[in-house]
Design goal:
The protein is mainly α and 328 residues long. The chain contains 15 helices and two strands. It is globular. Helix 3 crosses helix 15, helix 7 runs parallel beside helix 10 and helix 10 packs antiparallel against helix 12. This is Serpentine receptor class gamma.
């Protein structure tokens, strides 16, 4: 975004499509129809699952600040999930490249808030580990609306990436996002994007190292304080911790895979699909985890469905109960 706002000369150098004919690369090489259809279907499946989860988190937000962080993380996922599912599916089916739809592709690239997701995930992991290990410190850091400071920091970090870095651009050839909008049509212009690749790799490396380190330290603490913690930790807290741990590991795995792809410029179909679907599932799979492992979410979801069924039944139920005999 920086390059649109106040660095127009470089913007025109990087994003100028003059002399580019999209059809120089056949449309068949810019499409992944099976993967695209799967992405769209997964998006349509995952999206509805989020809403009962957020409703449940909202109901219980006063119990613990982790529910506020879960709401924030879920909203981030909702804001991001349409990109690797519906958007990429439609773009891929149509063989879209940057120069065929520059505004749409650039806008979608700016909407990729991967780094906000990373830092929010780390915050949630820190919250859970400190909450279970050092509850007094947790109250100082997260309670009494201090949790919103952490959320603001996540937003500022994401805003920094939007404003001061090149957005990643969808490439139909790669079935993924790359920094160079003319990827496949011109040789890679490393002079423009080395800083971005380094920054993304650093972000993903920090995620890949920090997240396991946090949980490893917690496990060590748990080993020495097992008896004390077993008397203090409720089953609900333990299950929330397990959910957060699984989500963090998914994010870590996606960060490692995408860093590997960026650094080593791997372009075979298998690595492309692994990278993409690992990214897709860190935004789409969390509600499945919540519904499977969180009894509170399951209970609230059942209540919602029961209410919906009653409403539907009341609308379907005929209001006029007169029989033929009543008219004679």
């Amino acid at each position: 975004m920086e390059y649109i706002l106040w660095n127009r000369n470089e913007y025109y150098q990087i994003y100028n499509c003059t002399g580019i004919n999209v059809n120089d690369i056949p449309i068949e090489k810019r499409q992944y129809p099976i993967a695209a259809i799967i992405c769209i279907i997964l998006g349509l499946i995952y999206y509805p699952l989020y809403f009962p989860c957020i409703y449940s988190f909202w109901k219980n937000k006063l119990k613990n600040p982790c529910y506020i962080l879960l709401i924030y993380l879920s909203l981030l996922d909702i804001c991001l999930l349409w990109i690797p599912t519906i958007a990429m599916g439609i773009l891929s089916l149509n063989g879209v490249e940057y120069c065929s739809s520059p505004f749409i592709v650039y806008f979608i690239g700016c909407a990729v808030l991967w780094c906000s997701e990373c830092i929010a995930d780390l915050n949630l992991g820190i919250n859970r580990c400190i909450e279970l290990s050092f509850p007094k410190i947790s109250k100082i850091l997260f309670y009494n609306k201090r949790v919103y400071i952490w959320i603001i920091l996540c937003n500022l970090y994401g805003l920094y990436w939007i404003i001061f870095h090149h957005p990643t651009i969808f490439s139909g050839i790669e079935f993924g996002f790359v920094f160079d909008p003319l990827d496949g049509y011109k040789p890679y212009r490393s002079e423009f994007f080395n800083k971005d690749v380094l920054s993304v790799s650093l972000n993903n490396t920090i995620l890949a190292l920090a997240s396991p380190t946090i949980y490893f330290l917690f496990i060590i603490f748990l080993f020495f304080k097992a008896r004390e913690l077993s008397n203090r930790i409720t089953k609900e807290e333990l299950m929330v911790f397990i959910q957060v741990f699984i989500i963090s590991m998914l994010n870590t795995l996606a960060g490692i895979v995408n860093s590997y792809e960026f650094i080593y410029e791997v372009h075979n179909d298998i690595s492309i699909m692994i990278a993409h679907f690992s990214w897709l599932h860190i935004h789409g799979f969390p509600p499945v985890i919540y519904l499977l492992l969180n009894k509170t979410v399951r209970t609230d979801t059942k209540k919602i469905f029961n209410k919906l069924i009653k409403i539907i039944n009341n609308k379907i139920k005929p209001t006029n109960t007169n029989t033929i005999k009543d008219y004679f």
